[in-house]
Inverse folding.
């Protein structure tokens, strides 16, 4: 954090906000505020320059056309690359996750991605729709991943990234692994407001951004009840 | 009608009656399902000889269908699927049950519009809006617009009545040769930031919109909402008196008047009929129980939640959310809805997915109380108005608890 205020950027909500993606911005802002951390949030549209000095960047899901357009604009803008190189934290979801890799498919065409995660995506034979659950990489020290996935892509990880989780229900990248992790970048197919069911991931992003090993606990009664319900539903 | 179709019609009506008698449902789907098994072309047979209007879109189609059917009633008996059973089975049931009517107004699920146009050869198709709705199952918005466009291009004889305020609808309607535009306003813009023609950003100002990269822009509307009334193509303003709440229903009335006008019904004839519509399959219904005046509002997706908040009075409000098959299994749309209009009233939550709602309301800093049942909700608010806003199956559950109020 460059000064006392935490800056969170939501990347291109005009293009990538298919289903409740705003939730991640709201949840991060709320959980920071509950710890007394001053927060400023910015929704940066695709016709605006991407700032490179924010602390956390969020990018969401979208349809093929907007996904390809978003990748093009982010590559030509360069601000997000500078931010990542300066150590910004990122949560990339669905289409936003795919475009962080080397390449992805949109409308049947292979499109260049940002190359910020060592992975590439293509189309699966079936659409992955439903509850997803996974064991998160133990080095991150987080509880089970819970989410809802809805995507037609399959993602192949290179040696430069670790899977975010091992899948125990659902498809994720390929039926075995789900999402990716490298440095302070997290990618996931747990779509839309992924942080609603995974407050520990929200807190991880906040800790990365402010350089803290821990945060003051908050009342997670309702998120815990939601998690317990959905983790059980995914196992059924 | 061919003999096979006659038999199918008769069996279909019997099955619907049995379903109602058994308390298993409205009978609005099962009869059509059986009829179509016997005669796959039954819908075409039942449609032939009738002047038909189809009403489709993501939101408002049930209400608009009901209003348009009321308006067309000026001309004679109208068949309609007034229970919201909006797929071909429902259309078949509705037409079979109605017998030979000169007119029909049918609500059509947006996914089935192309097929139902093919099978019913309608005189008029009304296109209301396209926004996100159950993306775990539904086609994405742009794909839906493409399907509509292709369907209309194949039927140049159909008169299209379309919403000038929704870029997706305007683009889809451009496939038609006879178009009447209405303006009912659009509160929800999140699905039309990007031009469906060119992919460029869409700009908006003062109710107008235009693509920044191609000629697509808002057409001039012949019918539009002004204050609590509707302006017709001649420029005459008509007061719209409805029993249904909210400005969104003035817009639905404008659409219904535009549809009726395609059949030659004048607004001045249709308006008294619109006033008679009090509730639609439980929507907007008011029920008195234990001193509480319970009003039921259905909200299925982000756009319709915003409209429900606009209609609801500042009174204790129960929100109920399920995520069963007809609702879609995904609840992430909760974050596309801003719940802050509820800040000024007591909020109760219930339903299969109340915990999703609880987490969402916490993020919005809205205090709430979780109740296990609808009865508990009724008992825990003071006498007076209780607003109930629920999504599809949650709404049906509550309606069943109120003796299937219509």
């Amino acid at each position: 954090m460059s000064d006392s205020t935490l800056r969170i950027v939501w990347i291109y909500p005009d293009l990538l906000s298919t289903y409740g993606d705003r939730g991640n911005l709201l949840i991060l802002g709320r959980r920071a505020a509950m710890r007394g951390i001053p927060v400023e949030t910015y929704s940066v549209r695709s016709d605006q320059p991407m700032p490179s000095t924010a602390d956390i960047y969020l990018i969401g899901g979208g349809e093929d056309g907007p996904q390809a357009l978003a990748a093009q604009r982010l590559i030509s803008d360069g601000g997000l690359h500078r931010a990542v190189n300066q150590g910004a934290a990122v949560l990339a979801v669905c289409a936003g996750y795919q475009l962080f890799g080397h390449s992805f498919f949109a409308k049947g065409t292979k499109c260049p991605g940002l190359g910020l995660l060592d992975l590439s995506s293509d189309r699966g034979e079936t659409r992955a729709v439903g509850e997803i659950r996974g064991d998160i990489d133990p080095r991150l020290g987080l509880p089970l991943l819970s989410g809802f996935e809805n995507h037609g892509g399959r993602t192949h990880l290179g040696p430069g990234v670790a899977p975010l989780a091992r899948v125990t229900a659902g498809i994720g990248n390929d039926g075995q692994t789900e999402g990716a992790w490298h440095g302070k970048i997290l990618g996931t197919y747990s779509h839309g407001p992924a942080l609603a069911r995974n407050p520990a991931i929200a807190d991880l992003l906040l800790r990365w951004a402010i350089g803290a090993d821990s945060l003051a606990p908050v009342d997670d009664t309702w998120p815990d009840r939601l998690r317990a319900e959905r983790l059980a539903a995914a196992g059924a | 009608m061919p003999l096979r179709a006659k038999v199918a019609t008769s069996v279909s009506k019997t099955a619907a009656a049995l379903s109602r008698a058994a308390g298993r449902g409205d009978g609005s789907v099962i009869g059509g399902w059986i009829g179509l098994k016997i005669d796959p072309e039954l819908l075409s047979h039942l449609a032939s000889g009738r002047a038909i209007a189809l009403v489709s879109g993501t939101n408002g189609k049930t209400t608009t269908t009901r209003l348009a059917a009321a308006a067309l009633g000026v001309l004679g008996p109208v068949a309609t699927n007034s229970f919201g059973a909006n797929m071909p089975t429902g259309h078949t049931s509705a037409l079979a049950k109605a017998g030979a009517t000169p007119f029909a107004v049918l609500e059509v699920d947006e996914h089935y519009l192309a097929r139902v146009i093919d099978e019913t050869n309608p005189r008029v198709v009304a296109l209301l809006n396209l926004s996100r709705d159950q993306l775990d199952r539904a086609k994405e918005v742009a794909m839906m617009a493409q399907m509509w466009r292709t369907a209309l291009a194949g039927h140049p004889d159909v008169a299209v009545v379309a919403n000038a305020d929704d870029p997706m609808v305007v683009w889809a309607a451009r496939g038609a040769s006879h178009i009447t535009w209405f303006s009912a306003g659009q509160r929800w813009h999140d699905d039309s930031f990007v031009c469906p023609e060119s992919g460029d950003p869409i700009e908006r100002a003062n109710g107008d919109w235009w693509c920044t990269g191609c000629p697509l822009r808002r057409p001039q509307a012949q019918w539009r909402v002004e204050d609590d009334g509707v302006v017709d193509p001649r420029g005459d303003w008509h007061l719209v008196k409805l029993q249904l709440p909210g400005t969104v229903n003035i817009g639905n009335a404008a659409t219904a008047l535009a549809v009726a006008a395609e059949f030659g019904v004048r607004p001045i004839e249709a308006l008294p009929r619109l006033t008679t519509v009090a509730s639609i399959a439980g929507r907007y219904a008011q029920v008195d129980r234990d001193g509480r005046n319970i009003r039921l509002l259905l909200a299925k997706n982000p756009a319709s939640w915003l409209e429900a908040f606009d209609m609801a009075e500042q009174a204790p409000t129960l929100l109920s959310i399920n995520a069963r098959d007809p609702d879609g299994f995904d609840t992430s749309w909760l974050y596309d809805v801003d719940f802050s209009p509820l800040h000024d009233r007591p909020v109760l939550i219930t339903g299969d997915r109340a915990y999703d709602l609880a987490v969402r309301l916490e993020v919005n800093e809205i205090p709430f109380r979780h109740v296990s049942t609808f009865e508990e909700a009724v008992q825990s608010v003071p006498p007076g108005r209780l607003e109930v806003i629920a999504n599809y199956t949650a709404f049906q559950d509550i309606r069943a608890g109120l003796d299937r109020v219509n």
Chain A has a mean pLDDT of 95. Residues 83 and 101 of chain A are 16 Å apart (CA to CA).
